[in-house]
Model the fold of this input.
Amino acid sequence: MTDLAALKREARRKGTPPERLLELARMGPELAREVARSDNTLPDILARLVNIQPDDLPTLQKVAANKRTPAQTLTELAAHPQAEVVWWAAGNPATPLACLEALTEHPAPKVRSWLVSNPVMPLSVLVRWQHEFPHLIRIPLNSCTVGKAPPVHPYRRIRIFSYSHLLGLNLKLPDSIGIRMTYQALKTLVEYGEGAEFSAEELTRALILTDLIPAPAALRLLPFPEFHRTLLQNADKIAASVRPQILAQLQGGTP
Done:
């Protein structure tokens, strides 16, 4: 009797010969999926899996999500007729930029949402989509107040999970790309306010994606003219304790 669990471990194991991985993938979709999702699988093997299991969507999805998949294969998967495959390529940082830009016109909303979450997506697209698809970028947490009891989140009826908020809140939030994006953006700004260094593009991206611009980060950004427009466009997210001061200086030109 075949030990499927052992074969799956072999498919994921570092050091399994490429020939053996191909042999396992040909045994059936379940093993092909394990080969496809492994960080140890070589790019050439990942490319060949598409032809070994061309009708198994989970295998194609895992190949599309694997950062070791060759650019040509990702481009082909980004053109797959099933959106369930395309959105994994859309979220993969290894997908060629030209391919990602072409996917901005994809009709499936989930494909566009995965594009927004892709860290290599050009900032110009995020700025445009901030207005066209705000629901993909911002999940409002305006009722959050540091040090107070957790607010009832407007998305509380969606499947939720708990995590500790960077600023001391215990929030229940939907398990979604949007939350992971806004959480990472807030983390960047919190660390920047504490003295960490980030590039101008990283900070601009964080200002767009976050739901709260902490006071220390806003005050540290204020002396730099390249951030003034973005701060004004996202003024409602600036911490209330410094918002009047920040706006007065931005709008009045006070040094």
Notes: Strands lie at 160-164, 170-174. Residues 137-178 have pLDDT under 50 and may be disordered. The CA atoms of residues 116 and 126 lie 7 Å apart. The longest helix spans residues 177-193.
